[in-house]
Structure formats: C-alpha cells, structure tokens
Amino acid sequence: MTDPTVQPVPASVVAQVDAADFTLNNPKTAVIALGGNLGNRLETLQGAVDALEDTPGVRVKAVSPVYETEPWGVPEGSQAAYFNAVVLVRTTLPPESLLERAHAIEEAYLRVRTEHWGPRTIDVDIITYQNVTSDDPALTLPHPRAHERAFVLVPWHDVDPAAEVPGHGAVAALIESVGTSGVRRRADVELRLPE
Q1: What span, in angstroms and rounded, lies between the C-alpha atoms of 55 and 49?
Q2: What is the value of pTM for the model shown?
Q3: Does the active-site annotation cover 123?
Q4: Distance in angstroms (rounded) separating the CA atoms of residues 126 and 138
Q5: Rounded to the nearest 5 degrees, what angle is found at the Cα of 195, between the Cα atoms of 154 and 161?
Q6: pLDDT (tens digit per residue) in 131-147
Q7: What is the phi/psi pair of residue 192, to 5°?
C-alpha cells in the first residue's frame, strides 16, 4: 500500500535542484580589481583581499603584485597615487551577489562617492565573471573600460598571462596597445594570499 501523503517530486523540481547543485559544485572564475589612494593603501587592499576570502562561496586563488599608478581622468598632481592590484577568485555566488559583497567591502572602508573619479579609500570592481557578458547598467560585464586601463591589465596579466577580456581580446595584446605609462610595480610591498 502506498502512503497518500507522499507525492512524487515533479521532474521540473528535480531539474532545478540538480542545476543548483551543479552550480555549487562548479564554481566560476571572477577577476576583481582593487585600487585606492586614501589612507593606508596597502592595509586597505589587504583588508579587501581578506574580506573576499572570508565571504561564503568565494575563494581567493591568486593575488597580483601591487602597482602604484597615477590617478585616471583628473588633472596631474590633484590626487595622491593609487595602489592597484588584481585578485582571481573562484565563486559559487552569482555575479549580482558578488557585486553586493564588493559594495559592502567598499562601505566597510568608508568609500565615499561624491565626485566622479574622486579620491577613494578602496574600489572593488568586478572585471570579468567567467565568460559572462551583460549590458546591465548595475553590473556591466566585462567591466566597460577594463580593456583600456593599464592599471587593471598589467596586474591581471601577472596572475593570468593567458587571460582574455571577452569581446576585446587577449590581455597581453591589450597591454601592448594601451602601454604601461604611469603604472609602476612596487617591489617593496606585497599582498598576502589568504591561508
């Protein structure tokens, strides 16, 4: 005799559960750029790396060397130089959740958005998420200006020499076209890969 309270699970529900399980067991690679020019730049960047690692569903796999770069889009000498780095992560979070976490890290470091290209304690930008492309204004993927910014491309190339910007080509070729002027590696400082 069958139990009338037990209903068979619809095939569509089984498929959804299997898809979710596949996502959990199949993390995606994301490239995250970090930069800041206020306060203790190295300490803030390291704090952002650690905060990413402490995020459930995120594992930091590689951290680039630190580069010191001139501010972008502002008159020369009007702001302090930036420290920039790129982090490769593996994540089971969808892009929107990863973006929420990036914003939370910026808020924790008192990132203020009062002026376009203004000085900031920290920028946490998602550059790419696997091979996803999106025109969503809230999260455009790949990052709409990454392919023209040496301060993203150079450290990214350090951690993934074969990297490509979806729709724009190989990072190595993009570096050749934009040049490396104003991007200087700081051999005297480094970011630790979380243990």
Answers
A1: 10
A2: 0.83
A3: yes
A4: 11
A5: 25
A6: 899 999 889 999 999 99
A7: -90, 140
pLDDT band at 45 (very low <50, low <70, confident <90, very high): very high
Residues 174-183: what's their mean pLDDT?
Answer: 94
Catalytic hit among 41, 101, 120, 149: 120
Residue 120 tokens read as 């900031």
Active-site annotation holder among 101, 125, 149, 158? 125
Q: What are the pLDDT digits (tens) for 15-41?
A: 665 555 455 567 899 999 999 998 899
Q: Is 111 a catalytic residue?
A: yes
Tokens, residue 102: 């990036």
Q: Which of 111, 184, 185, 186 is catalytic?
A: 111
From the candidates 41, 101, 123, 149, give the one annotated as an active-site residue: 123
**Sign, Cα dihedral of 92, 95, 100, 102:** positive
Q: How far apart are CA 174 and CA 141, in angstroms?
A: 17
**Do the beta carbons of residue 87 and residue 63 sit within 8 Å?**
yes
> Is 120 considered catalytic here?
yes
